[in-house]
Every structure is written in C-alpha cells, then in structure tokens.
Amino acid sequence: ATVRIPSSGGSWKVDLAPLSSAGAISDVQVGGGDQAFFVEGPVTLTVVHQGIGSFALTWTNAAGTEVLITDSGDLTQTVRVEKESGVLSVRSSGTWTLTSTRGNGK
After folding, report:
1. How many C-alpha atoms does 1 have within 13 Å on its Cβ side?
2. pTM for the structure as a whole
C-alpha cells in the first residue's frame, strides 16, 4: 500500500500499529472531540452526542471501515455491530457518551 501525505514544508511522522494497540473502551465512555478505542465485537453501542456540530462514528477492522453514524446536533442513537473486534473511531465537535454492551446483549 502507498500512503501519500501532502506537505507544505513541515515535517511528518507516521506510526503504524496493530488495531489492538488502541485503548480498550470501557462500558461507559465519556469524552469530547476525536478519539479511538479497541472494541471486542459483537457489541451494541448507545451514543449520546451534545453539541451543535457534527458527529461521526466508524468501525474499522481487517475487513474494512464501516460508517455507523453521521449526524449533527444533539442525538441519541443505538447501533449494533455484529462484526469481529475492531477500532471504533469518534469524530466530534461536541461532548459525547458511549455505552457498550458486548456479546449478545441488546
């Protein structure tokens, strides 16, 4: 694979690591801004986002990347991920809470 990083003269550093090197998600994770977590699937995720800006939730594993949620403003939404373990990425301009139930819990 080839990675191209446009540069305006500044220096760059790229670290490649296995998906499992991301920090594990707790049952309830509270945050703001962008973060990524390692999650053992399958999992049910309940998301609460507060803010006027955008919110996106994606799931990445060996099979690829899947967009789970893209929205803006306040939201409460539950999604079920039936796939194997992967990295859950949050991109947000507001505050958020993720509640996870692993395995067959719904």
Report:
1. 2
2. 0.75
